[in-house]
Amino acid sequence: MTDDQFITDLKIMDAGGQKIAVRKDLRVPMRDGVTLATDVYHGVEDKPRPALVALSPYGKELQALALTTPPQRRPSPMWDGCIEAGDIARVVAEDYAHVIGDLRGSGASEGEHVGNYNAGGVPLGQDAYDLIEWVAEQPWCDGNVGMIGISYFGSMQVLAAAERPPHLKAIFVSGGHFDFYETTYHGGIMWFMPRAAREGRGGDSGWAFTDRITSRMLETYSSEEIEARVTARLADPDVAAWPNLVHTLHYPKNHEAWFDIVLNDLDGAWYEERNPVNLAKNIEVPVYLQIDQGRGWTVDGHIELYENLRGPKRLEIGSYPPMQSRPWVEEHDTMFRWYDYWLKSIENGVMDEPAVSVFVEGTREVVTAQAWPPKEIDYRPLYLRPRRTLSPEPERMGAEHAAPDGFYQAPLTVTDQVEIIDWRTAPFEEPTELIGTGAAHLFVEIDQPDTNLIMRLWDEAPGGARQLLTTGFLKASHRELDDRTTEGNPYHPHTRAVPVEPGTIEEYVLRLYPFAATLRSGHRLVAELSNDEPLADAHNALLPPDAFHLPVGRPVTHKVYRDAAHHSRLVLPFTR
Q1: Distance between CA 259 and CA 281 in Å, rounded?
Q2: 89, 243, 377, 382: least buried by Cβ within 10 Å?
Q3: Xaa-Pro dipeptidyl-peptidase C-terminal domain: from which residue to which, for each copy (predicted)?
């Protein structure tokens, strides 16, 4: 058989000396008659084999670049965040079929797409069910199906598994996004990355949609209701000061999915309808969850999903940084051990290992256990003190002597300078380990009805080098806590915004996302507070340009009280 010879839908290609059979543009029927376009890659031997399915709106042709583009890491300008379906050549070499499909309304697939995990009124998980069952019936598949892919592809695995397709035997989810509100608003502060993924900005090619994606809000509400909602959003100074959001709100058909997100700045039914975390209780197949540290909200989401799963499960929290190579090639060794066991019935001991594995920064050791967190912890405070210090002991002086710290932030329309205030511990005398979530209790007075509070914790070495440990975000008007809150583990409902009375001192409790690190001898813990993010620093240089949060659009003066009556503090998970 020559490389260019076709047998029905089959072509043989040479990928670096490896022969790969390729089936292009297969039409897969959905139950309502719409067909999805799918490419399949497998070995040249004429035999059935297990299949790994990848499904996204990013376009199967883009995923094919995994065969010709060496993996790129940030900050390479060649990094493309949407090439996430996995290493095709490796999948084929491991004797699996790699099935890469275009979601309904994207790429070469038929139908239309409506936002919020919804495709023309059809749940995306339903289409995934139909695709998986079709794959299982093909002569090149032996009936055992798993799924593959990071980020959006990972979220699709959860949606698919919740539909319980009979031939889906296991999933391996890396870097997914789950709680839909938390994917787009962190502590109530809008995150721009979903727009980058949708529209192809800041290192992402974007969704492969043309004119077949529609705004769910425009389809649901009357023009009068939409106009009222747009007017309300434009009344927010943060939104009104940001040109891209003004454009989105005035021209929604150019930014369909992002328009829907901008109009829904509070949590509720719109986000919860197909929240993958809510669907976890329906999942019965074995699930492996893998996430790297550095983007705390994704770590948080993986832990939340893990705790809601009922079947066989594993959780692996890997090392910093979070932005992996594109094309995505990491974690394949672990993934194939998982699938060899569940799809090929190879006894390789993967189910004899502890359920939870956590990489600890600092010592660079891996700790394992049967649950999260992997060690017993004591939540202990570190108090903000005068002279910008952090101490285990609270301040004894009143505010008349321990005057508040403070900073003034002008909007980024008039300055490029992001003001940051920090507090730091004395050097640790012995290694100190922290694993888990945390909280920052801050007593703050502002002179506006709202602001952002953004905290970042750093491990600072004696020479000044530092690494990000975790972050916390809270929009001041979202300061209400709900009944899930416990010591060191705060939750906010985000179901309403309560403006701040300017000039009043309020306690704000920021959720510090899960992390695992050991502060070595001589190192300091540094807590930074700002209301915007610096556009470039040691951490942000690792992220795509649009991976930041909506800045505050008004000038704000912040006073941080940390005196005998106002115990501003960090509450952190010290291991025993």
Answers
A1: 30
A2: 243
A3: 336-571
Q: Are 116 and 270 in contact (CB under 8 A)?
A: yes
Q: What is the pLDDT of residue 202?
A: 64
Sorted by sequence, the CB contacts under 8 Å of residue 231 that are 6+ apart come out as none
Tokens representing 27 are 């039409």
pLDDT of residue 115: 66
* pLDDT at site 487: 95
Cα(98)–Cα(43) distance, rounded to whole angstroms? 10
Measured CA to CA, the distance from residue 36 to residue 13 in angstroms comes to 23
> Are the beta carbons of 303 and 369 closer than 8 angstroms?
no
From the options 2.60.120.260, 1.20.1740.10, 3.40.50.300, 2.60.40.150, give the CATH code of 377-575.
2.60.120.260
* Ranges of the chain with pLDDT below 70: 1-9, 115-120, 202-203, 210-211, 541-546
Amino acid 236 reads D
Cα 219 from Cα 113, distance rounded (Å) = 12
Cα pseudo-dihedral 471, 472, 475, 480, rounded to 10: 170
- pLDDT of 6 reads 35
What's the pLDDT score for residue 4? 36
Per-residue tokens: 399 = 């505010």
pTM reported for the whole predicted model: 0.94
Type of residue at 375: K
**What type of residue sits at position 107?**
G
Helix (H) or strand (E) holding 11: strand 10-15
CATH, domain 6-184+194-208+273-353, list 3.40.50.1820, 3.30.470.20, 3.40.50.1100, 1.10.287.130: 3.40.50.1820
CA-wise closest residue to 195 among 257, 246, 104, 150: 257
CB burial class (10 A; 0-12, 13-18, 19+) of residue 449?
middle
Give residue 539's pLDDT: 73
User: What is the Cα–Cα distance from 379 to 567, expressed in whole angstroms?
Assistant: 16
| CA 430 – CA 197 distance, rounded (Å) | 43
CA distance 171 to 145: 9
